[in-house]
Amino acid sequence: MPSTKVSLKKTPTKKVASKVVSKTTAKTTAKTAAKLAAKVPAKTATKIATKATNQKEDSGLPLSVVIRRRIEAQKARFHANDNIAQFIRPGELEGLVSEVAEKMQAVLESLVIDTKSDHNTKNTSQRVAKMFVQEVFNGRYVVQPTLTKFPNVSRLNELMIVGPITIRSACSHHLCPIMGRIWIGVLPNKESALIGLSKYSRLTEWVMCRPQIQEEAVVELADMLEKKIKPVGVAIVMDADHFCMQWRGVKDRDSKMVNSVMRGAFLKDPNLRREFLSLLEKR
Length: 283
What we know:
Blueprint lengths: L13 H26 L2 H17 L4 H11 L18 H19 L13 H13 L12 E3 L8 E12 L5 E11 L5 E3 L1 H12 L2 E2 L1 H16 L3 E10 H4 L10 E8 H4 L1 H12 L2
Parallel strand pairs: 2-5
Antiparallel strand pairs: 1-4, 2-3, 3-6, 6-7
């Protein structure tokens, strides 16, 4: 009898079967992803991709490094007296406090302070961190206060002086306190916006609540007021005690610094400037 060849199909092994299933699943997933991507707007897809990339890049890095990278990616400046609120995401200030507290603890240890058995300094690192981020340097990390502007319906065009406004800051060189007062003079016209008196104080505090140099601080404040209310003229006088000179160094407790910025009509009109300065002398 002639022999009959029987063709036997090999039963796929578990490994082969697994590969087939994986390929089928991958194809299905790819198709589903493609369909979803087609439905998602381009801007949203870009945001999702960017967020995923950022999370991958940010994992394991200190929060300060993550924020610094965001700033550098935008080629923005982050000097001591700059505001960086736009680069900080919701909830991150608490994380920044924790990081600063950890590094402040290392500073205390380097100063050979026994924070474990000294009850006075046990939680000092945490207190100092909260003070820097949430209070004395808070002007770096929060957005500018909202300024409600009113139209100049009465067409006011006379000199207005607000002050003295108490200021508290710290010098960028030694982080020692700067304590003083500011007077703001404004000459509006019919096109100028008017803001509430309390807003002058809020804006001043926002600018001063960061490491500052007095000469730069008053210029920064004048720039903001000019931009916000568009007056005919702005004048600012600041008188302050600098603890970097009174508390350390020469330790001259009677020395102060007084400086001024004159813009627009205050710079061009000596009579207006004289009126402004003479009224300050009576305060």
